[in-house]
């Protein structure tokens, strides 16, 4: 549907919540899922409307799901009354979605603890996400105040995130920066791509750790946090992540998923303000593939 804004300097999530008679969390999800365009472009939930802005919003479809707590053996690296840092295992989806209602990290987390509800019923506590077959560290908020502070820090690019990846081909440069906008692939809505169409700014920094005959082990730092950002950017420069089943169209070594690991995470504690930094080693699935590339 198309709506012509009749107000200005009002946040789009608040405006659409009133216009569409939906909760702000539902509208926020629509915006984050690129189902809302303003003047033909995606925007943030904090976008301030201008008079006569053209807003295109897909019809909201209610997801029929009951979120069930599940007892899981979670690898919790740190926990206090505000935040949980968890080392996500390979193959685990972060939060439920249509067609995948159970056995997600969120199902385990809500069994373990009460979480924030800023992101709605089906993404409690989730401040940021990583792919199902990406392993490593995630921060989770246990209350709304902590969630809002952590999310703001993430948006302001103050959160420290370092990934380790094994990519195809030998990278000649020791360091590099990829500055290329990312949006939905126009030919496949399930994929992302480097594009100028409804795209958002995306910046990835990388440094070579070790070179092998047919691959390179690198560390990466994210300046932005777009969906599939590392996988899309590395594929864009001709060095897709090893064992990635979606991007790169290279040989799939096994079914354990891409060699991409969120190795380090740092943020300011939402209550004390103390900067906290965590790390976790490469998982066995990554190490097993890495060994095959060593001479």
Condensed summary:
This protein is α+β, with helices and mostly antiparallel strands and 295 residues long.
| Fraction in beta strands | 25-35%
**Main structural class:** alpha+beta
Which segments are poorly predicted (pLDDT under 50) over 5 or more consecutive residues? none
Radius of gyration: 20 Å
CATH topology of the domain at 162-262 and 287-291: Pseudouridine synthase
In this structure, how is the largest beta sheet organized? 9 strands, mixed
Helix proportion: 10-25%
The CA-CA distance between the termini, in Å, is: 58 Å
The fourth-level CATH homologous superfamily of the domain at 162-262 and 287-291 is Pseudouridine synthase
Order of helices and strands: EHHEEEEHEHEEEEEEHEEH
- The protein's oligomeric status is single chain
Question: For this structure, what is the CATH class of the domain at 162-262 and 287-291?
Answer: Alpha Beta
Average pLDDT reading: 92
Q: What's the number of helices? A: 6
Notes on the protein architecture:
- The protein is globular and about 65 Å long.
- It has six helices and 14 strands.
- A hairpin with a 7-residue loop joins β9 and β10.
- The termini are far apart.
- It is 18% helix and 26% strand.
- The strands form three sheets. Strands 4, 5, 6, 7, 8, 11, 12, 13 and 14 form a nine-stranded mixed beta sheet that branches.
- It is of the alpha+beta class and 295 residues long.
- It has helices spanning 12-20, 24-32, 105-112, 144-155, 229-236, 284-291, and strands at residues 2-4, 36-38, 54-57, 76-79, 83-88, 135-141, 160-168, 175-179, 182-184, 192-194, 203-211, 215-222, 260-268, 275-279.
- α1 (12-20) packs across α2 (24-32).
- Among the domains are: 2-57, Structural Genomics Hypothetical 15.5 Kd Protein In mrcA-pckA Intergenic Region, Chain A; 162-262 and 287-291, Pseudouridine synthase (2-Layer Sandwich).
- 34% of the residues are buried.
């Amino acid at each position: 549907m198309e709506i012509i804004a009749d107000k200005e300097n009002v946040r789009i999530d608040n405006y659409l919540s009133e216009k569409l008679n939906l909760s702000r969390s539902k509208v926020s999800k629509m915006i984050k899922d690129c189902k809302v365009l303003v003047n033909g472009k995606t925007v943030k939930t904090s976008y301030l409307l201008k008079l006569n802005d053209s807003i295109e919003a897909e019809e909201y479809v209610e997801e029929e799901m009951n979120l069930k707590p599940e007892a899981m053996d979670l690898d919790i690296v740190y926990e206090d009354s505000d935040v949980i840092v968890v080392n996500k295992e390979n193959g685990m989806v972060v939060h439920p979605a249509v067609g995948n209602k159970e056995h997600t990290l969120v199902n385990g987390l809500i069994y373990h603890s009460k979480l924030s509800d800023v992101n709605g019923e089906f993404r409690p506590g989730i401040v940021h996400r990583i792919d199902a077959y990406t392993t490593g560290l995630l921060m989770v908020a246990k209350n709304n105040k902590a969630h809002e502070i952590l999310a703001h820090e993430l948006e302001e690019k103050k959160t420290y995130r370092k990934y380790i990846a094994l990519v195809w081909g030998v990278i000649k440069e020791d360091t590099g920066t990829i500055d290329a906008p990312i949006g939905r692939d126009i030919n496949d809505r399930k994929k992302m791509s480097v594009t100028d169409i409804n795209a958002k700014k995306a910046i990835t920094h990388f440094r070579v750790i070790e070179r092998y005959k047919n691959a390179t082990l690198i560390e990466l730092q994210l300046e932005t946090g777009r969906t599939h950002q590392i996988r899309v950017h590395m594929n864009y420069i001709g060095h897709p992540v090893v064992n990635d089943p979606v991007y790169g169209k290279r040989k799939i070594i096994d079914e354990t998923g891409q060699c991409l690991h969120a190795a380090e995470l740092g943020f300011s504690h939402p209550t004390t303000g103390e900067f906290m930094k965590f790390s976790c080693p490469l998982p066995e699935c990554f190490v097993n593939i890495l060994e095959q590339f060593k001479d």
